[in-house]
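Co-fold these.
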Amino acid sequence: MPPQLTETWATAYLQILIGLFIFAIGIPAFAFQLVVQEDVRHVTHRRMKMRIWHASVVLLLLACVSFIWIIHPANLDQNSNVAPAMAPTEAPEMDKTYEILQAYAGSIIVTIPILAIMFGFKLLENLKRENVVQGLEHHLEKTFDQSGFIEDSTLSDIIYLGEHGKSGREKKMALDALGRLAKHVQNSGKYKGCELEELIRGLKMILDNGARPGEEDDFYAAAAILRDIWNRLSEHNLSSNHDADMARKTIKHLSIVAVVEKSEPTALTYLEDAAMCDSGIVFEIGLSALRTRRFLIATAALNKLEAMAERHGLFVDYESSSNLLGLLSHFMATGLSTRLRAESFFAQAETSLDSLKSALATAFIYHYSNGSYDTSDRVAELQTTIESGGLRAGPAVA
Amino acid sequence: MKLKFLWIEDGAIADYQTMLGPVFVSGKYDPVIALNVADGIRQLRQSRFDAVIVDIRLPPGESSEWARLYDESRQNKATARLGLKVLYCLLGPGEEDIRIEGMPDWVKPDRFGVLTVENKSELQEDLDRLGIRVYRQKTARTPNNVLIDMIEEIKRQMQTE
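Predicted complex below.
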């Protein structure tokens, strides 16, 4: 039979329930604000908003119904408007049922807040950054297996956590998750070479975030991820696909950042990655290094370009030759030592003077048409030097 | 044409300035770096090298088989000695822990050298069994041109055979 509510009883129930809910939800919410970092809160709110809202409403309704239905003492004290829990305990007419109901009411009042606090702490545990990232990663792997594409909104959440996480451990969590996800996707039969665009773009966003830029270890971690992605693309013969293009652009961008802002080992790690992709990136790294007077990196880039150009037969491949001659021309113009290093290449080069001149003419057009006037001017200067016999040693094969 | 060599060494990037600096300045060599076992094996399969320099203490990289061997040694590079295990797998007389399929014919002991912190007496027996004669110990006093020395020694060794 439904309980018969009086105005006083309804008010009492409402007060107790509101008190309980403020306590039960307020304590974990306070802890949530206090303990959980802002970016994790942002992601959690975005992902769990509706679920928490629905759960709260259902819980509130259930609590109202059970409290009013079970505890209401209409059967015991129909004429009284005093709540049993508030009734004088010394009342001689209090019967057994009344005692049980009072104990039940007491237990609810004690256990609900305890359960709520326990639930709150469990929730806080789940809201640890590593657990959130791991949960998002597993969700993405699962949805990719089902649908064959990466869910953008969830991926954005991992990237957001990486972007706003502190350098080091927090950024690394997001980077590691992206690395594992890339591996999972690329090893799947559903991978076609265009599913990782946003993930690769995310690496750049995590590291090159103005407010919270990545530190050396983050750059290393991203370089390893990009290298692995590239290697798997090569294994699948997908090096000319969309993801490959995005990987190339990201390596280029991060390489230049690393040359200008990071240590030599970090910059050189990116140089290794760049050498896998194309000579244009190696040229850019070499030029940036030369301009920032980081000569070891510049020399390493020049060495890479020399090897890349030789691989196709010196001055045979248009692009790698033009990039090599472009960097050599900057070396020639920078200082005495860099000029000596450049001249040592010409001294060892197994080519004729004519093919060198022809390659220089091609390199001039290549850099000019790319809008790199600074480089095309340097190439023109090198052409003049060579034609006037200004090199200390000519090509090895005259 | 530059001599192309593979350096399998997890600390190669940190040693870039000291050990690879002279290599770059000379302009005579084309170094390729592998930071772990899996990467090293992949590079050996992909390209032909004039010389291969291997460290003894290596991490496994992306390979479940090598990761298992590493885990068996409690993930300790010094006790796992994966570099030595790789050499046995590539060159060893039937003592391999893992069978590496599809290795090219040029993979022979005379192209290999070992650059490691282990001293020679610890490794001599293994080096003899493997047929590797080019060895250098990596210490604080190791000269910066150690890689060039080793590659030139491997080159001379191959020319005499």
